[in-house]
Amino acid sequence: MGKRRRMEKRYRYISLLSDIEGMKNAIGEMRGMFFPKQPVLNQDARMDTAGTVLDEEWFIRTLTDKIAHHPESGMEYPFYDEPIFDPPLVGFVRGNDLIFDQFKEIIGPHHFTPWEIMKWQAEKNGVAPPDAKDISVVSFVMPITRNTRTDNAAAVDWPSERWAQTRLLGEILSQTIVGEIVADLMDKGILAVSPDVTPKFNKKRYPKVGWASPWSHRHIAYAAGLGTFGMQDFLITEKGCAHRLGSFVVNLKLKPNRQRPEDIHAYCLHYQGQKCLKCAKRCPVNAITAENAHNKETCYQKVAQSLKYCNKNYHIFIYGCGLCATGVPCESGIPESIQRSMESKPSGKK
Ligand code: SF4
Ligand code: SF4
How far, in Å, is the centroid of ligand 2 from the Cα of 230? Predict the structure, then answer.
């Protein structure tokens, strides 16, 4: 049974103080604290993977199974046991892909390459870091369910309760299942690391990009060919932009399974010269405009204020918004007119 299951039949009292996992999650995300102990590499098992073939299919199967059936995979009261997510999309990108050097320039030098974070894990375990060509990043998209999307699409100022729960429980689920996979691989003698639950992870304001973390699941998912960016900076995938993302690094050569569009805005109607800006109309604080795209600072201020609202009304410790990811043409898929034009070009998305 998951650790939050005890709230099965009621809201928690004095939620500002009693939602301990929520508080830990929020502080961890901002400050790189309260993460579980890193698993230790089982060096005796280095050549032995107990007969399991750890290929792309294994990762897709394992993630899909855990997202559907893990004890932490259900919503809380009053939506007890509804699923948090639909089945995931999973993609792979090799550690020596040149895009990671570009991220150093686009996002900033603080953003880790897969090799840098793997080096940290290798040194912690007293082994030599593997070559960048021998490591891969596994990236996954967890699409938000129709119930939650529908609720949030009806919201006009603050996130719906299902959305707020998804933001918190989905993050806990994601960190838990990645932690289990990483621990399993380390036990099999394969170096692996989940960058966003290491002490290296904390969010800061950076000159070029404003609030940012040293490991962006969103950019990693783009690198793995899982989607492209919209006006609101969310990643538009074949399951839309209403989702949570995760990623981790493994010392295995996994084959990329999706073609990455060169145009980082390939699936956004506005950027492709078509009428839209529905996300801008959905934003209660005008953080999205045709002239300046997404103003991260204005957005951040609104999202930070939502903590009080969610706590008071939904009895959990979480912030969020996502109004611009729901009630929009890219909510649950690539907009239809863009799909049609991709289908007419044989070199488009796989
Ligand atoms: S709502 Fe329209 S303009 Fe905004 S990200 Fe989606 S497709 Fe682009
Ligand atoms: S997430 Fe940010 S940009 Fe999107 S609607 Fe909310 S405040 Fe506006």
Answer: 12
